[in-house]
Each structure stands twice: as structure tokens, then as C-alpha cells.
Design goal:
alpha/beta, Rossmann fold, six-stranded parallel beta sheet, 16 helices
Length: 368
């Protein structure tokens, strides 16, 4: 088979769709070395990616995600290549692309939480592109039963068209050994801390988490800190405004985008990982925390209970008192910490990039 892959989001970084694309593609190469693959890569990745075999080609595709060029010049590049099928690992399939394709839908976040930058026109364009991808694809890949359910009920797609191939945890987490002398104080971390990693958007509920943490401090004293990684989002200033208004500069620490080594150490050192989202299509971060032996407290919404099972302590993301209560419980209860760590290590064995890629390959083979 000859598979064309829109790999413009390909990235070995730990989180996001880029990591998903990276992991699945690596498994494709390992499991099907006899297949031909043509990867369309963004500018930076094109320079660094070295095809591991003669069956793998790369094509420069600097067209940005969600851009007009994606629908025009990128489409022309796709049309020049003659593959058996094309895989788009995100919903942004060029509307006029006429050939058979698979598409991965990770979640329907933009449908449920469109965000501040989505004007009426942008929302209309998003819905058109999404529906095109869903209705015209040969197969829809997704990462959880919850997202499959959303696609069926919100977009009226047949269940038979949807294949679930779950996300997993990168080997860096599974093999991580922390350094004894890692310098946490350079980030202002001087106490035990709770950790959050990820985007700053409304559906992530980080303001609610900050409110719950402030209650924790008022009741127990300033015995802990809340560390938040991720890029500051100017469209969602509420979190930093809350921090400033309540003078929590030394208590809540936004450390920005950190490198992989630092992120692993933060995960490993945290007293607990907090995952407060209102909505997730899957949610890899709790599994990453489990892999480095850190207990997790988490929202009980959307796909999260399906993904995390009984290996985390759940709270209602809309109830600040409940989040606060679970923060206190995990912080002070050593036996609970130990129990969740043990359950987490067992639980992550259920997820494997190898098995997920195997499911996708099986579906692709039926298109020969």
C-alpha cells in the first residue's frame, strides 16, 4: 500500500495532536516496512526529518493549519501524489479533496467550547470543514468512546463508520529516572506542589482550579504551591487576572512552556497532578502523571472516567468546594497517594501506541 499522510502537525514533543501523529507514524514504519509512505511536513520538521527507509518520502508543506492555503496550494500538492488512501490526523481536510481518506477526530471541543476567537464566520467555516471530513471519509478514527458518542449524537454519523484507537503514553515517561539535584527553585518552587499542564482555555477550567487552591491555602496555610505549565493565552486573561487580584504570586506559579526534561521532573516531583477540565476527547496528561508515579485528582467529566478508570480521585469540575476537598484529601492522605500510584502504574498498561496503530493498520488494509 501507498499511504499519504498529512504530517504537518508531526512533532516528537510530549503533548497534543503532534505527538499522536508522531507516535502512530513511528508504529506504521515499524509494523509495515513494506508499505510506501509519503509524508507532507511543515517547514521545521521537513528540515529535521530523515526518512528511515527508501519506502518513505517527504514533501514540504508549509501551509498553515486552518489557513486558506490549506484549501488551495496544499490541496494541489495532495493531488499530485497517487496514494491508495490519505490519512488526515485532524479534521482539517481540504474541502475539495476528492480521493479516499481516513480522518481522526480527537474531540468536538470547538463545537462545545468554540472560544473567544471564533466569530460567526469562523464557526461556520469550522462546521463546514468538520462535516466534510466526517461525511466524506472512508473511516473516522477517534480516541475514546466518549468522542465516538459525541460524533454519533452531535453529527449523526453511523457508529459502524467510527473506529476507536486510544492514545497512550510515550516511552520517555515510562522509562524516566529523575535527577536528584534538579533545580526546582529556579522556577520559584520552594514547597510541595500541585501540577497542571496544558492549554489555557475556558474548557480547561484553570480558574476554577485556582479558586479551589486558594481555599486550600486559606484553610491550611501556605504549605503548598500550584504550578501551571503551558503558553499564556491572551484571549483568556482570567487566570492571570485572578492570580493578580488575589495576590497569589508566590503561591500560583505559571512557568510557561518548559522543555521536555523539566516537564518530566515537574510531573515526577508533584505531590499530585490536577486535571480540572470540563471537556476532554481523551486526556493524556493524567496517564503521563501515572507513568512517573504521581497520584492524580481529576474532573469526572466527558471521556476522563473512561480513560482514567479507578486510578484517580474524581471531583465535580463545576464544584469549587469539591475540587478543594479532593486537593486536601490527596495532599494529606499518604495511604491514598500510595494506592493511586499503584493503581496508576497498573492502569497505564492498558494503553499502547503499538496496539492503537495496529487497529488503524487493520482498517487501512481493508481499503486495498
Amino acid at each position: 500500500m501507498h499511504i499519504l499522510i498529512d504530517a504537518r502537525m508531526y512533532s516528537p514533543q510530549f503533548t497534543g495532536i503532534g505527538r499522536y501523529v508522531y507516535e502512530i507514524i513511528q508504529e506504521f514504519f515499524r509494523q509495515k516496512p513494506e508499505w510506501q509512505f509519503t509524508l507532507f511536513l511543515g517547514e521545521d520538521t521537513f528540515k529535521t526529518f530523515i526518512p528511515p527507509s527508501k519506502n518513505i518520502r517527504k514533501i514540504l508543506a508549509p501551509e498553515k493549519i486552518y489557513s486558506f492555503e490549506e484549501q488551495t496550494s496544499f490541496l494541489k500538492k495532495l493531488m499530485k501524489e497517487k496514494g491508495d488512501i490519505t490519512w488526515f490526523p485532524h479534521f482539517n481536510v481540504p474541502i475539495l479533496y476528492p480521493r479516499p481518506f481516513f480522518v481522526t477526530i480527537h474531540d468536538l471541543t470547538l463545537s462545545k467550547f468554540p472560544g473567544k476567537k471564533h466569530s460567526f464566520l469562523k464557526n461556520l467555516i469550522y462546521k463546514s470543514i468538520l462535516k466534510n471530513a466526517l461525511w466524506r471519509s472512508e473511516k473516522i478514527l477517534t480516541v475514546s468512546k466518549n468522542t465516538k458518542k459525541d460524533i454519533i449524537f452531535d453529527e449523526h454519523i453511523s457508529p459502524q463508520k467510527i473506529l476507536i484507537a486510544e492514545n497512550a503514553v510515550g516511552k520517555e515517561f515510562l522509562e524516566f529516572i529523575p535527577e536528584k539535584n534538579f533545580n526546582f527553585s529556579s522556577f520559584g518552587i520552594t514547597k510541595k506542589f500541585f501540577l497542571y499542564t496544558g492549554q489555557w482555555r475556558s474548557h480547561k477550567n484553570i480558574v476554577g482550579m485556582a479558586e479551589a487552591f486558594q481555599k486550600f491555602l486559606k484553610k491550611n496555610g501556605k504549605i503548598a504551591q500550584l504550578v501551571i505549565t503551558g503558553k499564556e493565552n491572551p484571549l483568556y486573561p482570567e487566570f492571570l487576572e485572578y492570580r493578580e487580584k488575589n495576590n497569589l504570586y508566590e503561591d500560583i506559579l505559571p512557568v510557561g512552556l518548559v522543555n521536555e526534561k523539566t516537564l518530566l521532573h515537574l510531573y515526577s516531583k508533584a505531590t499530585a497532578y490536577v486535571f480540572p477540565s470540563f471537556y476532554e476527547g481523551f486526556g493524556i496528561p493524567p496517564l503521563e502523571a501515572m507513568a512517573v508515579k504521581t497520584p492524580v485528582i481529576s474532573s469526572s467529566s466527558s471521556s476522563i472516567p473512561e480513560v482514567c478508570g479507578d486510578a484517580v480521585l474524581y471531583f465535580n469540575p463545576s464544584n469549587i468546594d469539591d475540587i478543594n476537598e479532593k486537593m486536601e484529601k490527596i495532599f494529606f492522605d499518604r495511604s491514598l497517594q500510595k494506592e493511586l500510584i499503584e493503581k496508576g502504574l497498573e492502569h497505564i498498561q492498558k494503553f499502547s501506541w503499538k496496539n492503537s496503530a495496529k487497529k488503524i493498520i487493520k482498517a487501512l488494509e481493508k481499503k486495498e
